[in-house]
Design brief:
The protein has about 140 residues and is mostly helical. It has two domains: about 60 residues, Orthogonal Bundle (Arc Repressor Mutant, subunit A), CATH 1.10.10; about 45 residues. It is about 50% helix and about 5% strand. It has five helices and two strands, in the order αααββαα. The radius of gyration is 18 Å and the shape is elongated. It starts with 7 loop residues before the first helix and ends in a 13-residue tail after the last helix.
Length: about 140
């Protein structure tokens, strides 16, 4: 079995265009002889942060998987889904963050009230607006 340092073209080359061609992590790991499904999801994450646009769908009814976009609507749907997930994670994290802040946790030490604190930014950002700003702007 191959490790998670698989060349990026291997994953991208087996993905089809459009949601109808979505392949699950299990299908991909079996096709590409990875050690685990987690290895595939980790590799896809690395590809995404390196610039590859790999969309995913998770409808909860077994209709899930990874695919290449066939048009801008696929990308828009993917981005909206990711923002929704970030918003839900932010909401779920906020009570724990507030608890630690109240306790003056050593985890945050001097930065708990700092506006630059990444956790504070995460917990209090409204991801539901789907505002996307280019980092180069």
């Amino acid at each position: 079995m191959k490790d998670n340092k698989f060349p990026k073209r291997s994953i991208v080359s087996v993905l089809g265009e459009g949601i109808e061609q979505a392949k699950t992590a299990k299908e991909l790991y079996q096709m590409l002889d990875y050690k685990s499904e987690r290895g595939i999801t980790s590799a896809i994450h690395k590809l995404r942060i390196s610039g590859e646009i790999i969309c995913s769908v998770n409808e909860g009814d077994g209709d899930n998987g990874y695919f290449l976009p066939s048009d801008d609507r696929d990308i828009e749907r993917f981005v909206k889904t990711m923002f929704s997930r970030m918003d839900k994670m932010s909401q779920a994290t906020k009570p724990a963050y507030n608890y630690l802040k109240k306790k003056k946790s050593t985890l945050f030490a001097d930065s708990i009230d700092d506006e630059q604190n990444p956790l504070k930014k995460f917990c209090y950002k409204d991801y539901s607006t789907n505002d996307i700003k280019n980092q180069d702007d």
